[in-house]
Amino acid sequence: MAKETVEFWQADVATLFDRVKSRPEGLSYEEAAQRLTRFGANAITDAARRKILLKIAKRFAEPLVAILLVAAAIAAFGGDTASFVIIVSVVALSIALDLFQEHRAELAVDALKHSVAIRADVRRGGACVSLPVEEIVPGDIVELRAGDLVPADGVLVTSRDLHVNEALMTGEPFPVEKRVGPCTASSPADAFNALFAGTSVVSGEAVMLVIVTGGSTRFGGIAAALADIEPPSAFEQDIHRLGLLILRLTIFLVLFVLLAHLAFERPMLQSFLFALALAVGLTPELLPMIMTVTLSRGAIRMAKKSVIVKRLAAIHDLGAMDILCTDKTGTLTEARISLVGHPGVDGNDSERTLSLAALNSYFSTGIRSPLDDAIVSHSGEERLRSWTRLDEIPFDFDRRCVSVLVEHDGERMLVVKGAPEAVLARSKFIDRGDGGKAPLDDLTRARLERMQNDQAELGNRLLGVAWKPVPKERRVVCKDDEDELLFSGYCAFIDPPKEGAGEAIARLERLGIGVKIISGDHEAVVRHIAKSLGIAAAKTLNGAQIAELTDPALAAVVEDTALFARVSPDQKTRIIRALQARGHTVGFLGDGVNDAPAIQAAEVGLSVDGATDVARSAADLIMLSRDLGVLAEGVEEGRRTFANVLKYVRMGTSSNFGNMLSMTLASLALPFLPLLPMQILLNNLLYDISEIGIPFDSVDPDDLSRPHRWDMGDILRFTLVMGALSSVFDFATFAILLKGFHASPDAFRTSWFIESTATQILVIFIIRTRRRFWKTAAHPLLLASSLGALACAFALVASPIGRSFAFVALAPSLPAVLSLLVACYLMAAELTKKLAFPS
């Protein structure tokens, strides 16, 4: 009989301490270092990143590289050694540069991530220290509080009113209570004494003993299983679609040329090698490297502007973002919250209301709110310490309130604090403040609601406060106890608009980004903030209205709505989905536990340094400053990065298409090949080298002023217009060479190689910008790579090495004629490019 597996949570804590050779005070630094070497970092590592062979295999599977590999194999089979060497050199150069730059990008991004790494409080060397979660090892003792991510799998050593969100594992959105004690459950979902990596603490405190880390955790197993099927980003999908488009064009061209040559009874092997050389010429081999360099450079530039990139492809998404959804606290407001009043039911400030609110804020163990800090600071802690906390009902977004059971001198009461309408709905009486109570009738309820609205119109945030006595024998309370409360009054807070927030919003709008506020506050408070910041808010939706709308109905109204008030976490996600359904690229900026689902749902998930672990873990980008001006800087960097990637694509596809079209038609009309296969490959290699400086180039102001996304139609239009223009001048060159100079086949090929290489490389400076080329300077690295490649081409033709490529000396007057043709082409390209660029 097979031995039954014992899960770690089924063992008692003492046994587990022995198993992992640890103790309550934690490990020493020496022990931890040894275990880190043995078990590895506490991180979910992508296998493709760990193994270089997998990286290479992934590149070989790309359609663009597949074309080159087939061409190289056929060249080798046909005995064309020179072509084989050139193709292999192109593939090796592309992959080597790509891997090298990807490795540099990984190092750069890792360094950036480390600056905003999730940390945990660990007992190490006899003291509690803050360490990156990657350094946690089996046997560590970790202290947890509300808002923390659980960094590894382990068991509770001690706990106090601990509630954990395990939706990542179970799909259950409600917090689960955890406690110390023996557990016989076979399922991790039922293991009340165990904590699992990736879950988050909603309320309470705990000390856990780490048993399993990294890829061996439950979360690690799930992540590893999903790694291979994780869908690519929109940016990666677009790049793959571009590759497939080029692949289809290449297959068509190869088949057309091959069949046409065979119809004209040309040598089969020579025709096939020529067709494959054309296929190679159509392929933008350096696209992966250009993307990697451009994105990593963009990440480094963004870091200098206080935006840390965790996922490189998110840079493109940030540049494409046209809607930003954000909460107001700390982003649009100063987050310097002050208590400005604590009116009782009569409208006058009530010490009774303040004392009750202070008891609730002081003893609640959930995530600390600035509102709680303001209440306790205003009240003072001295008089609160004589009370004893017995139990708590943590805050959740269904009830929208938090309750604590407290005791003092034999008096026990349940104190409830939360959204005013939620507390009022649970109240049956009013606290008159003199020890008596009165029924909460409809007239009084209406008066209290008017009081709430009046405060909200002033821009003040409100919390409702209520209480009720509890029998002395009760030490535990539940949600059902939150009824028949005595409503005491309100706490009113002010959080002034942040200086410069209005200008930052105006700057985002000038960049083509609409800003929408999604808040849990009262509708009037949100409107007040929006008005003070200059946000046009013709329409507002609140949570109750959203709950009544179907997803299609929400999508129909969400575009014209700028303000969303009293929304729940799931409604934030619905708003994001509705905007995406309308074709928008959406960013969401949040910092709380409840913001994580919306951050993950948005194409651009944003959080801030100092946010909860859950929010920062879900985000693609982390802002080091709570300033939308910083985000605007990041948007411009994202657009600059995407513009340079698109610049390479336009240059490569248009130039390659024009040259290959010219060669295809010329090969059918001429009795000889216009270029030999190895000459085509050499031309292509030199052109690739000339474009290496593109990631460092500057971009036009128009590329930064509005969102941009991949548009295959625009790319095709640019390719056809500029490629056709190139072919027109190629045909003019053919006519001059054949009719004017009666050039031999070798002289023809040599002349056209020079003309083709010169036009391809020099036109880079024309089509790199929509503006007149002399009005914007290219980056020195682009100048060096382009002119250096052109100089190499001329030197190669003139040197003895050129004989190996069948180049010959030209008639003395021919270079001048070719120079005139190149100059005419460049002028025509400058005049024509407006037709090629999208309007």
Can you describe what's shown?
- With 839 residues, this protein is an alpha/beta fold.
- Helices cover 50% and strands 16% of the residues.
- It has 31 helices and 23 strands.
- The protein has an eight-stranded mixed beta sheet, with helices on both faces. Strands 10, 11, 12, 13, 14, 15, 16 and 17 form an eight-stranded mixed beta sheet that branches. Strands 1, 2, 3, 4, 5, 6 and 7 form a seven-stranded antiparallel beta sheet that branches.
- Helix 5 packs antiparallel against helix 6, helix 6 runs parallel beside helix 11 and helix 25 runs parallel beside helix 28.
- The radius of gyration is 34 Å and the shape is elongated.
Topology summary:
Blueprint: H1 13-19, H2 29-39, H3 47-50, H4 52-60, H5 63-77, H6 81-115, E1 119-124, E2 127-132, E3 141-145, E4 153-165, H7 167-170, E5 176-178, E6 194-195, E7 200-212, H8 218-227, H9 234-263, H10 268-282, H11 287-304, E8 307-309, H12 314-320, E9 323-326, E10 338-341, H13 351-363, H14 370-379, E11 388-396, E12 401-408, E13 411-418, H15 420-425, E14 427-431, E15 437-439, H16 442-457, E16 461-469, E17 485-494, H17 501-510, E18 514-518, H18 523-533, E19 540-542, H19 543-547, H20 551-558, E20 563-565, H21 569-581, E21 586-589, H22 596-601, E22 604-608, H23 613-618, E23 621-623, H24 628-669, H25 677-690, H26 701-705, H27 712-740, H28 745-762, H29 764-767, H30 780-798, H31 814-836
Parallel strand pairs: 9-18, 9-21, 14-17, 18-20, 19-20, 21-22, 22-23
Antiparallel strand pairs: 1-2, 1-3, 3-7, 4-5, 4-6, 4-7, 8-23, 10-17, 11-12, 12-13, 13-16, 14-15, 16-17
